[in-house]
């Protein structure tokens, strides 16, 4: 049976909540970069997220156990999320949040191609064409950013690539682990990975990885990075529980709207006409791919019932 409207509506509401809360993580990270190295902000996300998720998982009573192969996937998932987070925080150090997020939104196109290469997913010429157009939209955002900020404008592309691999690993894990437990284990693995990385950064005096003692509002900003990451991703997790991903996927682009509003209110940043054109191209291409996914899903035969 298809989900009823009384379950879809909470899912839609939670997805909209994700789109509003996720940019708050970006705002806290951008403000923190004035006082805290990028690597330390990245590590704080996982430390705070682990601390917040521990009581949630304990109250829910979900199974903590996992196989050795699943533990390897958790570690891989954490590494890709670390790289994705680091790339985005490095970008917003100087770039407007909306610009960086718009470039990072080429991730669905990368995911589409990787799904075809790695898993043999069916990808028609129309979706490939839409992906090429989407990349063209990203270049429209990158071009003025590259002129204004230099090579740092390419960091969001790193975010897109690493997050695409993160999503592929999540796809492999989704049937073997509860999503909330998955978030906890990923956060714990992220802490275990970041601790030696930051220690090495301190020993080698690498500016972006050499931790400092936070002072004043920096503590609150570091907590905000982890808190809004946890809150937003819990909203998305439960949104997918209530409503199908095909229904929720188009709403994800509301995150760009929230990022533009927050970027303007907090930092006074507002996209220029070229950036707006790129954002519109990326969103239109993404929505077209979602539309084609729905058409393809309707044409697939339903799985045979178990004997």
Task: Give structural attributes.
12 helices, mainly alpha, 307 residues, 0% strand
Q: What is the topology?
A:
Blueprint: H1 5-32, H2 38-60, H3 68-92, H4 97-104, H5 107-119, H6 125-149, H7 155-173, H8 179-203, H9 217-242, H10 245-248, H11 254-267, H12 273-299
Helix pairs in contact: 1-9, 1-11, 2-3, 2-8, 2-9, 3-7, 3-8, 4-6, 4-7, 4-11, 5-6, 5-7, 6-12
Question: Can you describe what's shown?
Answer:
The chain has 307 residues and is mostly helical. Helices cover 77% and strands 0% of the residues. The protein has twelve helices and no strands. The C terminus is likely disordered.
Number of domains: 1
Largest sheet: none
Q: Give the overall form.
A: globular
| Low-pLDDT windows of residues | 302-307
Entry summary:
This protein has 307 residues and is mainly α.
């Amino acid at each position: 049976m298809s989900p009823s409207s009384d379950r879809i509506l909470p899912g839609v509401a939670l997805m909209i909540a994700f789109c509003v809360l996720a940019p708050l993580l970006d705002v806290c990270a951008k403000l923190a970069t004035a006082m805290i190295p990028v690597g330390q902000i990245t590590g704080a996300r996982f430390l705070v997220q682990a601390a917040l998720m521990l009581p949630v998982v304990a109250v829910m009573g979900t199974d903590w156990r996992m196989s050795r192969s699943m533990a390897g996937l958790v570690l891989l998932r954490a590494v890709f999320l670390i790289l994705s987070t680091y790339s985005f925080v490095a970008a917003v150090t100087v770039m407007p949040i909306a610009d960086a997020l718009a470039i990072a939104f080429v991730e669905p196109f990368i995911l589409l191609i990787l799904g075809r290469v790695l898993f043999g997913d069916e990808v028609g010429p129309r979706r490939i064409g839409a992906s090429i157009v989407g990349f063209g939209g990203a270049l429209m955002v990158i071009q003025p950013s590259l002129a204004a900020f230099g090579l740092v404008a390419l960091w969001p592309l790193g975010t897109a690539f690493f997050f695409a691999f993160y999503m592929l690993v999540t796809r492999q894990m989704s049937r073997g682990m509860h999503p909330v437990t998955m978030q906890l284990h990923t956060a714990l693995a992220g802490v275990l990975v970041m601790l030696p990385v930051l220690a090495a950064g301190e020993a080698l005096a690498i500016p972006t990885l050499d931790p400092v003692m936070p002072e004043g509002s920096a503590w609150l900003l570091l907590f905000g990075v982890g808190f809004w990451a946890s809150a937003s991703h819990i909203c998305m997790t439960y949104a997918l529980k209530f409503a199908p991903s095909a229904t929720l996927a188009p709403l994800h682009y509301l995150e760009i709207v929230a990022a533009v509003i927050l970027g303007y209110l907090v930092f006074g940043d507002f996209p220029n006409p070229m950036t707006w054109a790129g954002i519109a191209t990326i969103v239109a291409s993404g929505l077209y791919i979602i539309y084609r996914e729905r058409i393809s899903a309707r044409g697939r035969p339903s799985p045979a019932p178990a004997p």
